[in-house]
């Protein structure tokens, strides 16, 4: 028998090591945490989608530049263009869900895409973060284990709008309120809550769908002129918003009696109309019209070095700020996961899901992150995947947005039973056994 030489032993060991490495999960040796970025920089919602996408990407760049990542783990990201099309969104989801060890969660930027990927997320075990949109009943974490409608839903937004109207009008009884909405899953989402509130509070609800993309609204605003509602709730986004505001101006409907959802309340929606939009109200997700230190940090660490995603003028605009808020929550979910599963390690998608479900971002933490004026403390749990919902009302003065209300929270006496009902219905339809959070 020939003797085994040392170089043969070393070669065999190297081969064995390579084989073992090949069988280990990709994330085990990854040096970066991957964050997929679904965006729509084209299509009907591009005016909203561009600053939103820029804000998301800018905050990830800021964390890398200012903080060196999350406990030393740098963030990597890749954009995928959906054009706000559900089928394209699903294609992006499928392509990116397993990239670089697994996605750290998807902000789909679309209620329709959220509907399409929610069932897949159950199987793929990937989080879907829908801050301020998506399925309103997905705040129930016992059924929607992988969905996180953080900071608010369309039901909470509609409730807050009604609260502000009631405060100004001395109640809702006897009032006529119109919902002018994008005829899509996005626009239809608040209808169930508004119908329930109309029956409870005694106001008449008009439902006026607008065919996408929403550029042509003359017939809709003619109906409003004829039927003379007291207030209009405007569930719009992208090119539909300025088109509607201009039609309201042409028809003589007072802009101060219009309330836009947060996606219809950004700088690009009103700046070209100027004084013609004066008085137009919008609800904000948290206090996203505020300015805070995170914007100064973004200029210092990213834009001053020529590494910004968009134009410097975007910093401080509401849509851009919301994008940063969304990425901040995703980063804090990863950081929370590291506290449990290992600081300085790349987290798996399932570990990040645990982070989303155990967020506890207090006032001191928000201040340290530079969001102390923009957000209030937020805490999630097994059963509560939304956390606390806070919002304010802003009004356009012809030149800029002004915060014109105190903080609002939605009335859970109306919303909680609906969440339970619709979540139970979804569980029965999908044959999901709700988990126990005891």
Set out the fold topology.
Layout: H1 6-23, E1 32-39, H2 46-67, E2 74-81, H3 86-96, H4 111-124, E3 128-129, E4 147-148, H5 154-169, E5 176-182, H6 185-188, H7 191-201, E6 204-210, H8 218-227, E7 231-235, H9 240-251, E8 258-260, H10 267-270, E9 281-285, H11 293-301, H12 318-341, H13 349-357, E10 360-361, H14 363-369, E11 378-379, E12 391-396, E13 401-403, H15 412-430
Parallel strand pairs: 1-2, 3-4, 5-6, 5-7, 7-8, 8-9
Antiparallel strand pairs: 9-12, 10-11, 12-13
Give helix % range. 40-55%
Total helices: the number is: 15
Q: Nearest-angstrom radius of gyration?
A: 23 Å
Between the first and last Cα atoms, what is the distance in angstroms? 66 Å
Strand line-up across the major sheet: 6-5-7-8-9-12-13
Q: Summarize the biggest pleated sheet.
A: 7 strands, mixed
Task: Estimate the strand proportion.
Answer: 5-15%
List segments where confidence is low: pLDDT < 50 over at least 5 consecutive residues: 1-30
CATH superfamily grouping of the largest domain? Response regulator
Give the quaternary arrangement of the chains: single chain
CATH topology of the largest domain: Rossmann fold
Reading the helices and strands in chain order gives: HEHEHHEEHEHHEHEHEHEHHHEHEEEH
Determine and state the CATH class of the largest domain: Alpha Beta
Overall geometry: globular
Structural class per helix/strand content?
Answer: alpha/beta
In the CATH hierarchy, what is the architecture of the largest domain at level 2?
Answer: 3-Layer(aba) Sandwich
Number of strands: 13
| Average pLDDT for all residues | 93
What's the domain count? 2
């Amino acid at each position: 028998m020939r003797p085994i030489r040392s170089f043969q032993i070393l070669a065999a060991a190297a081969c064995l090591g390579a084989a073992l490495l090949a069988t280990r999960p990709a994330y085990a040796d990854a040096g970066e945490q991957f964050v997929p970025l679904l965006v729509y920089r084209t299509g009907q919602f591009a005016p909203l989608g561009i600053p939103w996408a820029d804000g998301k990407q800018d905050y990830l760049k800021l964390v890398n530049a200012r903080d060196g990542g999350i406990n030393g783990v740098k963030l990597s990201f890749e954009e995928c263009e959906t054009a706000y099309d559900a089928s394209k969104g699903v294609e992006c989801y499928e392509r990116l869900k397993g990239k670089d060890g697994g996605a750290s969660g998807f902000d789909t930027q679309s209620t329709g895409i959220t509907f399409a990927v929610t069932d897949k997320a159950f199987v793929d075990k990937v989080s879907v973060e829908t801050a301020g949109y998506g399925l309103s009943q997905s705040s129930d974490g016992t059924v929607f284990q992988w969905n996180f409608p953080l900071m608010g839903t369309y039901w909470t937004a509609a409730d807050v709008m009604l609260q502000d109207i009631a405060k100004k009008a001395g109640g809702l009884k006897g009032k006529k309120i119109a919902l002018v909405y994008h005829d899509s899953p996005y626009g239809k989402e608040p209808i169930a809550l508004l119908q329930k509130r109309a029956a409870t509070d005694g106001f008449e609800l008009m439902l006026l769908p607008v065919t996408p993309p929403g550029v042509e609204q003359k017939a809709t605003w003619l109906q409003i002129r004829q039927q003379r509602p007291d207030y209009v709730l405007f569930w719009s986004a992208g090119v539909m918003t300025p088109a509607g505001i201009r039609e309201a101006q042409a028809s003589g409907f007072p802009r101060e009696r219009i309330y836009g959802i947060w996606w219809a309340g950004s700088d690009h929606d009103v700046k070209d109309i100027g004084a013609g939009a004066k008085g137009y109200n919008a609800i904000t997700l948290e206090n996203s019209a505020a300015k805070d230190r995170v914007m100064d940090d973004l200029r210092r660490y990213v834009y001053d070095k020529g590494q910004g995603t968009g134009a410097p003028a975007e910093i401080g605009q509401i849509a851009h700020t919301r994008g940063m808020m969304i990425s901040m929550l995703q980063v804090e979910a990863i950081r929370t996961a590291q506290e449990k599963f290992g600081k300085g390690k790349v987290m798996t998608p399932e570990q990040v899901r645990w982070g989303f479900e155990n967020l506890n971002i207090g006032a001191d933490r928000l201040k340290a992150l530079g969001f102390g004026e923009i957000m209030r403390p937020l805490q999630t749990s097994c059963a509560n995947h939304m956390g606390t919902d806070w919002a304010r009302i802003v009004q356009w003065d012809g030149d800029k947005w002004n915060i014109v209300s105190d903080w609002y929270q939605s009335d859970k006496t109306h919303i909680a039973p609906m969440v339970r009902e619709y979540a139970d219905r979804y569980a029965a339809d999908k044959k999901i056994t709700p988990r126990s959070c005891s």
